[in-house]
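Re: the request from the purification team.
They wanted to know what the chain is likely to look like in 3D before they choose a buffer screen. I agreed to run a prediction and write the result into the notebook, where they can find it.
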Amino acid sequence: MPAPQSPLPSALRRRLLQALAAGALPVSLSALQAQGAPYPNRPIRAVPFGTGGGPIDGITRVYADKLQLRWGQPIVVDPRPGASGVIAANDVARAAPDGYTILFTLPLTHINEAILRAKLPYDPVRDFAPLSQLATGGPMLIVRGDSPCSDVREFVAFAKTHPGLGYGTWGIGSNAHLFGELLRRQAGIEWVHVPYKAESAAHADLLAGSLGASFANPASARALSLSGKVKVLGITGSRRVSALPEVRTFSEQGWTGFDLDSWIGVYAPANTPAAIVDALSTALREITQLPDVRARLIAYGFEPLGNTPAEFIANFKADYPRVAQLIKAAGVSAE
């Protein structure tokens, strides 16, 4: 399925322009100067998407350690789990715009939920200052290691003779859910979405035989695959990943519409002074290029990126209509 060519919705476009002009990337340095001391001069709170122990939590801690070494200030990792990341995002949206609270998150809280939900407690554009997209890496379809299937087409054939199989994801509206429903429609299989609050719980049920398949983030898919407990049948997104180079993408296996990349992004609250946005963004980009950090990201199953706020916004604008098209093609609605 080719990327849709429809322009960004006018309401979102207006919000992006407003954010650039006055909110997310302000030009005034008065707030910075009012602090009376160079930034940062006290602890920074880093809020990761989801529960503690997951890949975003782990990656947040990698960056927290590097920022602490760089600036000599404590970086406190403070997870805010629940509501598919909405609680964490709202926490940061409501924080003081002073650079001392930042969000590590996924597209789910900033694109998917904005499309699926009529109301969110925050505006994904107006209430945030984008800092950098650290890495890309999409959900992977996994089955138990003793499964007779070795790729997506073999699994589809198996699912057609075993209707009613459950597949696990980490939440309604996640990219994993969207891709699962797209496969259901495209392949004509009868499988059932089973959302979990924690991805690890889905994998436990898969290994116990309660699920026929599950989606996994790159980190857990790699770890489970190396242990022999699961097989990775296919990778969503536009490219293979260095951690599992032998696993083909869905697109390579003949499935269309699965080439939308997921990402890990970092935001500050809107109205954070431009000098602080620049300091945070520069630090995140430079940390992403460190060899040991790149190795950690790859080990987690992600491909390092590390871009500027302007590049982040451009990617967001490109992704928004593609996610909207994916949601429509998958037939997913908020529940």
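For the purification team: The chain has two domains: 10-137+261-330, 140-235.
Please add any questions underneath this entry.
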